[in-house]
Specification:
By secondary structure, the chain is α+β, with helices and mostly antiparallel strands. The protein has a single domain, classed as Lipovitellin-phosvitin complex, beta-sheet shell regions, CATH 2.30.230. It is about 15% helix and about 55% strand. It is built from four helices and twelve strands. A hairpin with a 2-residue loop joins strand 11 and strand 12. The longest helix is centred in the middle third of the chain and has 19 residues. The radius of gyration is 19 Å and the shape is globular.
């Protein structure tokens, strides 16, 4: 139960969001180095004393390796990570800059990804990011016997994609200050809708505010056990970016999550708040 809960939490805390608006393509020069800082805090309560609070700060280096007609090849390297977790009163702290922390099981799980570049493909028309197939095949196995190590590794793996996706935003053509538009996606287990508003454009800086909802309903297998999930997430946030290059300088997101998880015959209520920000230089 504890392992499944931790791994399930990772999916909700780092789920990436793609804003697939077609307009001017992303423009960024080869060999451009982008420094990214991602900060997130979460507070989750599933009843029955199952509470978790997390605080994470990660530093990444994004390097533009090359360009083709479809998009860009980007190298993403996690260079630093600091994480604090309180799960049911059990404190777990990790700082990649402290040698002693890297000797723990959690540290060893993160070390497999620290300072090791991964390669991603960025679609210049939609902003969608996919992991290079070769790098995906070489991803390290996670020690399934340690739930906290599994959580850290799962969160970092998902965040690799998210930190690249969130570095870019494409505004639809013809939009002016005060205009709003929507973006929605749907599949058999998830429906999402977001509404964006162009708050201002001043020189090479545009500011977007957004709000939305994500509804999830379906079953998922976690470590051999089937889990029934029903979730509603309400989102608000802001995006500051260059409308010429579509490169983001700052992105924030606040999430309020409510729902239920049925696991091993037990239905548990879920309430969570997640705050995150991404800064690019």
């Amino acid at each position: 139960m504890k392992k499944s809960f931790l791994l399930l939490c990772a999916a909700f805390l780092v789920s990436p969001f793609v804003f697939s608006q077609n307009s001017n393509p992303i423009k960024i020069e080869k060999d451009r180095l982008i420094l990214a800082t991602a900060v997130s805090t979460s507070d989750m309560d599933m009843g029955m004393g199952m509470q978790m609070k997390t605080s994470n700060v990660a530093s990444n280096k994004l390097l533009i390796l090359g360009e083709d007609p479809a998009g860009y090849k980007i190298s993403n390297t996690l260079t630093k990570l600091k994480s604090d977790m309180d799960f049911m009163g059990q404190q777990t702290n990790y700082d990649s800059e402290k040698p002693a922390d890297n000797e723990s099981e959690t540290g060893k799980a993160v070390a497999a990804q620290l300072n090791k570049p991964d390669t991603f493909l960025l679609d210049k028309l939609t902003g969608k990011v996919t992991r290079n197939k070769k790098s995906e095949e070489n991803m390290p196995d996670v020690n399934q016997g340690n739930p906290l190590a599994g959580l850290m590794s799962s969160m970092n793996s998902s965040a690799d994609v998210q930190v690249v996706e969130n570095a870019f935003f494409i505004i639809p053509a013809g939009k002016k200050t005060g205009d709003s538009w929507s973006d929605s996606t749907s599949d058999k287990s998830m429906k999402s809708k977001r509404i964006f508003t162009l708050k201002s454009i001043e020189g090479n800086t545009a500011t977007i505010s957004y709000s939305g909802t994500i509804d999830v309903s379906g079953n998922q297998e976690i470590q051999g056990s089937e889990v029934a999930i029903t979730m509603n997430t309400k989102l608000t946030g802001e995006i500051i970016f260059n409308p010429t290059t579509n490169l983001v300088s700052k992105r924030t997101m606040n999430s309020d999550i409510t729902g239920t998880i049925e696991m091993m015959g037990q239905a548990m209520p879920v309430n969570a708040k997640v705050e995150s920000s991404f800064i690019y230089q």
